[in-house]
Amino acid sequence: MKMNIITLLTASIRNKPGRNLATIFCFAFIAANIFFLQLLFSGTVLNVDQGISRMGADHIIVGAQYTAHLRIGENPPENTMALVKVEPSSARIKADVMGVVGKIPGVSNVSPQLYVSTLDLPAVSPEPVDLFGIDPATDFTIQPWLQTPPDHPFGPGEVLVGSELSGKVGSQIDIQGHLYTIAGRLDPTKSSVDYTVFLNMDDAYAIASAKGIVPPSAPQISPGDVNAVLVRIAQGADSGMVKSRIQQPFSYSYVKVIQRHFSLDPASQEIKGLPGLLGVISTFVVVAAFPLIALIAAMVAHERQREIGLLRSMGAKRKAIFLLVMSESLVLATIGSIIGVCVSLVAFLLLNTMGLLQTTFQVSFRTPALYEIVATSCPALIVVIAIGSISSLWPAYWSSRMNPYDAIRGEGK
Amino acid sequence: MIEIIGVTKSFSTDCSEVRAVDDVHFTVNRGEFVLILGRSGSGKSTLLGMLSGLTRPTAGTILLNGMDISELSDDAISELRAKEIGFVFQLSGLILTINALENVMLPTLFCPDYPGSDSRAADLLTKVGMSERACAYPSTLSSGEMKRVAIARALVNAPSLLIADEPTGDLDEATEQEIMELFRQLNREGTTIMMVTHNSDLIRYATHTYRMTQGNLIKSDGALSPRLTLEPRTNVNDKVSS
Fold it and tell me: A311: nearest CA in chain B?
């Protein structure tokens, strides 16, 4: 059995529980403040990000004869604000439009949608159900509405269902004798999306060719047909300009471009000021707490001078004393920061669940996922550990340079 | 083993310079039990501090096993202390939050070439009569028991020199006698011991005795240490110890 530094460290920390608890509290206070502010910020950003991602496309390219057929009771302005899904229509265009549009400057994403049919599926919904084909690889308007992110890519034989359709995720849905597995359920949109089954494109073409799916009166669907190409423009691009560029290569008798008539800029402007505010508050907390922690560290070193002298008399080198004092501070800082982060997280979750945060800040917060919490906690941990290290530098240096003879004789003084 | 040549230690105060140790010369040979008597403030602890490299002399040379420790770097002196010197102080200096056995093992942390076996610390506690209290914390030990643990701790790295600074200053007469018997036993087993004390009753335990007054080392006949190596007085108490 040999003595090790951990035993000595533990002993030192246990030596003055009151003093060390006070130090840990200081570290926890800083960590809790920084982490809570980070959580508020990231919660807001996540909420806004989700909102933006669910706003759908900036433009929809449809056939020239396209006319939206809204369901009874739907509110037209709301449905045209967020271009998530094209409305059922028999006006189709060819998917190769995507290849042309995708190369247009200012276009960020393009994705096709195919309206297959509207069917009565009493086992699934009392209302008629729309069948749509989407391309899971390029889709950016439907999948952001998923209640929970899928554990695998939405593939062949699988469907996504709107919020008003019955059937659990993982169970099968029967579409007039064709069985599909429900891979995901969407959040309510208060639009026709809530009554829609989304298949991948190949399955959509396959079911479209089956008997009794597409009404005989409607034009038959051929592979390569799509009802719309949804377009997201690049950040900073001028929406009107991009719309003109999209229309330019095509005849007005072939396609038309529908533009969303609102901008996301006001929302993004609101959160632009948050990082600055966060920085100011965090800096204030650090500046206020740093001298206190440095003072405690200096007092601790002074109080321990006899003990340090004894260790020196046993042969401890200056470097060992320096590392011992630093390690002790780092251990306290780490414990404090972890406690601060945990307390802060519990407070955030409680206040958010009770709705107090939303009431206070007039902003809604989305609870971050575990990995986001871990990532968000890193700055708080790093800052607190850095404060612990910096505030202990001078006491550690002073302790290591102390004359051991004077330190030992300082006993009782 | 130890040769001190013209060692002086002076401290500056606001209006004057105080010589705590003034031009001291003497030699300690291996296996001796040297006692330095003196009143508080006579400079005896300062002398021990310089012998162990805890403080550096203002002037003079200190040779330990032929090595001039006043020329060594701080790290080298620390390493020398870890390997060659064991300390026992007036107050035991035990760390309160680790038990007796862990206190004894503490110096091994700073001795990379720890010479002992895994059980050496426990064996030393047995040697000082503390084996049954190995797991006891210092706050539960008496002054005498703490001193015994401190002695075991001083011996754990098998030092060639044991330095004791007023080791019985805080003990009652009976416990003082027990501790001094322990020192004598260690000395008989080959440990070189240098002890300072203000208690002249303890000279009977030593093989050689010096007296320190106002920074000067004085022979028992009262002569100041000259600028040459003092031959220590062979103590009549050798007879007592034998």
Answer: B107
